[in-house]
Every structure is written in structure tokens, then in C-alpha cells.
Amino acid sequence: MGFDTDDFKEKPTIGILNTWSEVNNCHTHFRDRAEEVKRGVWQAGGFPLEVPVMSLSESFMKPTSMVYRNLLALETEETIRCYPFDAVVLMGGCDKTVPALIMGATSANVPAIFLPSGPMLKGCWKGETLGSGTDMWKYWAEKQAGNLCDDSWAQLEDGIARSAGHCMTMGTASTMTAIAEAIGLCLPGSTSIPAVHSTHSRMASAVGRQIVELAWDQVTPQSILTAEAFRNGIVTDMALGGSTNAIIHLIAMAGRAGIKLTLEDFDKISQELSVIANIRPCGEYVMEDFYDAGGILALLKQVKSHLTLDCLTVSGKTLGENLEDGEVINDDVIRPLDKPVGKAGGTFVLRGNLAPDGAVIKPTAAEERLMNHRGQAAVFADYGDMKARIDDPEAGLTADHIIVLQHAGPIGAPGIPEWGMLPIPKYLLEQGVRDMLRISDARMSGTSYGACVLHVSPESAIGGPLALVRDGDYIEVDIESRKLHLDVSDEELAARKAEWKPRETTFSRGYGKLYAEEITQAHEGCDFRFLHGDGSEMVEPKIY
Length: 544
Hints:
The structure is a single chain. This protein is of the alpha/beta class and 544 residues long. The protein has 3 domains: 5-122 and 163-325, 3-Layer(aba) Sandwich (Rossmann fold), CATH 3.40.50; 123-159, no CATH class; 348-503, Glucose Oxidase, domain 1 (3-Layer(bba) Sandwich), CATH 3.50.30. It is built from 19 helices and 16 strands. It has helices at residues 5-10, 30-43, 69-82, 97-108, 134-144, 150-159, 172-182, 198-217, 221-224, 227-240, 245-256, 263-272, 287-292, 295-302, 319-322, 383-389, 426-429, 490-499, 510-518; strands spanning 13-18, 47-52, 87-92, 112-116, 123-125, 128-130, 348-352, 355-361, 372-380, 402-405, 437-440, 452-453, 474-478, 483-486, 521-523, 529-531. Strands 12-11-10-9-13-14 form a 6-stranded mixed β-sheet. A hairpin with a 4-residue loop joins β13 and β14. α2 (30-43) crosses α8 (198-217), α5 runs antiparallel to α6 and α7 runs antiparallel to α10. The chain is globular and about 70 Å long. Mean pLDDT is 92; it is low at 1-5 and 523-544.
């Protein structure tokens, strides 16, 4: 069968942007799903064209897939612009693919639907449910403490990831796909469906049919992505106990739609709404259980009093209309508002002289004893320094010390890697210690847990206060009052800052050089300045 130019006049041309890759386990089923999307497009009278785009594999990309989020966003935008697509289907799921695809599609602003990869099936080991990431960190600590042998560890590895799909805990992937649905870019209920369920295949075909309708009606991302829609995304994040990474991505996604979100927007909602999704790492269950309990529509219906329900979605209906069929099947997995998983909200924003522009923590994933803590700092200059010295008993760390990692932010690492769940020294693990306060300008995996203060801003690489912390300094963290204080006088900090010198960047060419030149550390103040890696102010900031 052949096609001539008249076919393009009669049928909307649908671009299927597929992030399938052999090195991205989250998307290994996307070859089949793309064919099912095409089937739906044909059924609705469209003309499908599949285009591969960069796959951001969280497990394999170094130093972090976050470096390349904006590269995929650029590729997505330019791919949509340069081909004759009337509408696009965005196929993603693994962590950074979600915001990257949405950012690019928002800037290109042709009709778009996001098709989530879906979580993998729950893991299993000796009758115990395993959750990817969360239980890996848990049992790795036990192995380091000498409580788990190599054979048992190998069995855990065999049982923890039993199918295609992204992490089945409430990590960044599950958080961001749920947010994508809450802001209106997914078909109703699609983000809860496990990757290998037959329902996921049917959903893919439904996406193909619906994107043709959006092409005819010219419903674009920017007509859906309003300030109220993004507020719905924040509410969803907090109710789920979602990944701290959601803050970074939501701010970037909103920026593409011309909407400015602040840390205060997140903190305000976290004070109004507690976590009701009983999913690891904050709770007990995993995403397959969440789907069986009613899924994202049931959760959103539980918190509908906090949502703006008249927001348009890609279904052609409002968010409120999408929620009409939502039903909680298991109220231990999806809790009522008066019986939350924990009294704390999903993510708290901390401020103080150590983080004048903010830092974040997920209190529901930390030990209660560390919610109000004052301790001495044990400082590591960078990740290599930390790896070399963290397990040295001569360092004399105790459970009351506060581990501090510098040069792990957007500029310093570079790319703000997931180093924030800093390891607890092996000799302390052997003593039974399982949580300590840890502070850095890094991120952490959404699947991880612990009393980790993250995203400290301004970052250390541009001379932020984190760069000035020294061994033995006392730091006070009070989660309830949102306080992060370095107990050092202003005069002493000024003297240390006068001695501080920035590190030189090491990139000579390629995307790394572009990243170093273009990506900046936002310095949130009255004038919202932007700084280069050497601390100098940018007159015309280059950000994307």
C-alpha cells in the first residue's frame, strides 16, 4: 500500500515519539506499545509515524540522567517542529523522560498526549514483597552490616525486577507520571496501569484514537497547562508522598508554559495535605497494589477538595469529570484524609543561613528522632572524597553526626546527581544505625529514604554557605519549623567566603561544554539573579 500527498491532507499526521532503548529497562515493552498506538491512530483515521528520541536511562547514564533532561527536551521540541506532525504521542516513563518530553512538547505546542510506560510488577523474595530501589537500599545496608550473604543478595537481585516497566515504588517515575495525569496530559487512570497488564495495551490504542481527536480540535499543551493545572500536580505529589525530584521538574515544566512556581507553593500545600498513599518508601505497598486499590483516579477523588476540578484534560473532559468513576477499593493502600500515612506532608522546604534559597526533605521517609536534631558536621568535599573516606573508622563518626557533601549540585557535580542518600558508614551499620542526618546540594532517588536534606541552594560550587561548612561545625535541623541553621557567626562565614575559590569546569567540547555554559544556579532573592559557576552574575542569563 502506498501513500501520496493527498493522504496527508485527509488524515492528521501523528508523530509517535518513542524513547524505547535496549539500555532502558523501563521502556523495553515500548516496541509493542508503539504498534498499539499506531493501531489506534489508524482506527481514528490518522496517519502514524514513529520517531525515536533519546532514552534517558536512570540506571546506566553517567554521571546522571539529569544532565541530559534538557537535551531530550531540546530534541523533542525540534523533532516536533521539523517534521509535519499535526499532533504527537509522547512515550516515556523512566524518571527524566517524563519532564523532558513534556517540556519539549509544551514549547512546540502542538496537540500532545503522554503515554506512561507503567510500573513493573511487584518483586518477591522468600514470600516477601520487594520494591525496586527502596528494598535495594534497605537490603544493601543489611549486606554492608554483615547480616545478608552473597547468595541471598543474588536471590534478591533475581526477584526485585520481574517485568518491563519503571520502578514500582513511589519513586520519581511513578511520581512524575501521576503528575502528568493530574495536570491533564494523560488519559484518565492510565498512569497507574502496570506495564505488562493487558489494560496497558488497550490504553495505548486508546491514546492513538484520542490523539487524532485532539489533532482535529487543536487542543494544545498550553491550552491545558494552566497555573491551576500545575497546582493540581503539586497536590498530587504531596498526597502521594512523591519524589523530592518532582519539585525540580514541575518548576521546569511550568516554566515552559510561562508559569512561575516557587518553593513556597510546594511547602504551603505540604502543610495543608498529608500523605495518603501507603506506598514505599513512605508506606508499605507498591504500585501494583495501588492499581488494584483504585489507582490514581481513586487517590485524586480522595483529595478533590484540594483540586481545581474544571481544568481541561486530553480526554476532552475536565479533571472533575475524569474522577467521577474513581473508587477506593482498598482504604489501607489509599487512605482517607483523616487517616493519613503520616502526620507530615510529602515534602518540606527548609531555610536558614545554610540554605537561604531553600532545601528540601521528605520527612515521612526519615526516622522521627532526626526531625529536630543538632549535631557536628562531617564534611566531604565531593563524591570521590566521600567514597574514599566514609567507611574509615578513624573518622570517628557517630549516629549523631551530620554528614555533609559538597560539590554535588547542578554546576558542581555536574547535573545534581542522585547522591543525596549518602551512605551510612559501614561500622555504624554494624552497630545497628540505619538513619543519619545527611545534607547536600544533590538530589536523591525517589525510591530512597532517610533523613536527607537535599537541593541546598545556593549550591556549594558557586560559593553558597554549604561550601563554607567545616568538620566539627554544629548544624541544627528542625523539620517542624522548617529550619536549617549553621551555628557559625556571620563574621566567621564572611572570612571563610573570602578564602573560597571556585573550581574550574573540565568540559572542552560536546554537550558537556554546552551544559557548563548554559546551565546556571538560580539564586532566589529580591532580584532573582543568575550566577555562573565562578560566582559571577549573568547579565543576560542563558537558561532553557
